[in-house]
Amino acid sequence: MPSPYINDQAARAKTAALLGRLLADSYIIYVKTQGFHWNVVGPQFEPLHTLFQDQYTELAQAIDEIAERIRALGVKAPGSFAEFQTLTSIGEEADAPAADAMISQLLSDHTTASRTALQVVTEAGTQGDVATADLATQRVTQHEKTAWMLSSLLQRSK
């Protein structure tokens, strides 16, 4: 028997709103990571240039999946910078900071996005929405893995 969630538009809208925030967080991180990819300089240029490209490429796929899940819930997906800016708690970066500052910002941003994704997991689980919970769980995993990798870059060998 299908979950009553299927026909509960208010519950679906609540879950979609949290997904919208995750979408906004992800999009802002995507734009920031791509900008850092273009503008990183210094002795870490080559590995960071490649790492940032890998990260924004992964985010591009995730952004599409999140937006499509919002649509599957019957809600319009946010799709403009204005909407993303009102939904996210992640700040943009207009400058090209030093490489370590880039890494630190992205570490903080991925930690924030992981928390946002965890809120989606919790709400979707409460509503019996296993598809959204699964998608958000994958995002928690990816953001935590990325944060761990970025954190490792900032650690000094002893």
UniProtKB/TrEMBL annotation:
Residues 17-156 form the Ferritin/DPS domain. SUPFAM superfamilies: Ferritin-like. The keyword GTP-binding does not apply. The keyword Nuclease does not apply. GO terms for molecular function: ferric iron binding; oxidoreductase activity, acting on metal ions. InterPro entries: DPS_DNA-bd, DPS_DNA-bd_CS, Ferritin-like, Ferritin-like_SF, Ferritin_DPS_dom. CDD domains: DPS. Keywords: Plasmid. It holds the Pfam family Ferritin. Belongs to the Dps family. This is Ferritin and Dps.
